[in-house]
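Bench notes, afternoon.
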Amino acid sequence: MKKIVLGTAGHIDHGKTTLIKKLTGTDCDRLKEEKKRGITIELGFAALSLPNGQKVGIVDVPGHEKFIKNMVAGAGGIDGVILVIAADEGVMPQTREHLDICSLLSVKYGIIALTKADLVDMEWLALVTEDLQKTVKNTFLEKAPIVPVSAVSGTGIDKIVDAISAMVANIPERPSSGTARLPVDRVFSMKGFGTVVTGTLSAGKLKVGDEVEILPEKVRAKVRGVQVHGNTAETVTAGQRTALNLQGIDKTRISRGNLVCHPGTVLASRKIDIWFHHLSASSRPLKNRSRIRFHSGTSEILGRAVILGQEEIKPGENGFLQIFLEKTAPVFPGDSFVIRSYSPVYTIGGGKIMDCQPEKHKRLAKKTISALEILKQGSLQEKIHLFCQQADIRGTDFHQLQIRCGTNEKKFLVEMEKMLSQNEVVQFNKNPRQAVLASVLNDLEQDILKLLQDHHRKNPMKMGLLKEEIRTKLPKQTHPKLYSFVCERLLKNKKMMLTDEFLALPGHKPRLKTGQQTLKNRLLSLYKKSGITPPTRKELVEKIKADEKEVSDLLGLLTREKTLIKLSEEIYYEKTVLDTLVQKAVALMDEEGQLTIQRFKDLTGLSRKFMIPFFEYLDRTKITFRKGDIRVPRKSN
């Protein structure tokens, strides 16, 4: 049997709850306040058994204008509607608003129950029916059956059941392969069970033992038990009313408007892109940055509507909006929503969610609208390409990408593997799987090669650039793993080479300009003559009266050639001189078992200016090990 949920709609006191009680035996008004005032305030729930054995859930909604937000919360999960209109009153304000809301929430199936038919004569009934037909013209209820009925006398009850059966037979079942999402409409605690939440599962399936996440709070719980239509079950699938007994969470941490889903499968955001239809009946245009009430799932959140691509949206027109919410909301691409005005409160429109984690847009840019058009009617491949393009060198995570595309994992991976095989996108990390557009990766490769080319031209004496040096010259948003992947690919394809930790273009060798060989020889000669007391870098520049950068480059070249050994930023030693000093230090340790600054100073006459960097060099090269103020041979420690 199909899993179907129906809902009621209609003006206050038109007999919605009474009709449901007659059909199911369940009084959906369970609150004392509802009994006292004789009106429905909260959502009510019942199960209807049809003659063919089909069981459907029914959500009974309040009709009073003050409780429209409760009505929207209930209508969000229904597959079909029973629009209830009292024959003695006819079409009323909430009749029209409820009909608009059902249309905006993409309800496509319904019947019309003309209640209290026993209170009017046939002539009046005909007039009401005619007016009703005009009201539903050009809506999804235009061809819906209109069934006169009386819940008191029982007249027409069989016909309404037949009409419901026919409607249910035509409603397609929701697929259970989607991302499981249960918008919470009730939460309470039961003795011996703990926290219980109820709602209509809008997609996917949940089962006993599943770990779930409650959004937007991002708290975890475990499904301890499942009930469907009051009966214990192991699994609940899309299109069923259900009660979940949750383990590991207190009821105070959950409220209506929350969403139950599998961990990490739905994104919560305060900024969303939407396709919006402005109701023709609205009294004025929607202005940019209007404050609004955003209804999605079972939640109502205040926000501001930024109009994209135009200055305003007139009644009856459509357009793209970026909504900035005052609180985080769990939303899913493709889901329907309703927007109501901030004050006075009335329904102004609704539509479909395009993107649950968009960037902030340039409001009137053609690029913005082009991208949103892709999200509205583009293929899955076009959406993947767009999101990868927007991610640029930041790269994008497969899982996050799948959620933003609003599709299930199987469909997403089939399309993604196709794009990988066509080299449209490139995977640069395995766990988690991350990708980038091939064009973005190629551009990054060219940027790195250009950096090396420029560096070789400006610094011909240098071996190249360290990997970290190149990374700091690229945009900060470059994903570190993407950068590493590109470097490895360039090396593998021999477009770049690695020598002594330096990256360079293939075939690059340090070279000297005219006259630099002479200067290099002078430097080396000076270090040899200076012996164990060489000049500092600053003293060297003053002594030979050369350009500081040129001297620095030559020192680097001599260091890489291992002709000079760098002890510190200021102190360099000619290698044979340093080797002699090291031999003296080792001999002294062999003789005395340790090495101290004072003892070595007595032996060599070196000042602390040279002694400190020399001892640090011994430690760094693992010849000595420091213990307090003395050094001992590393091998003996």
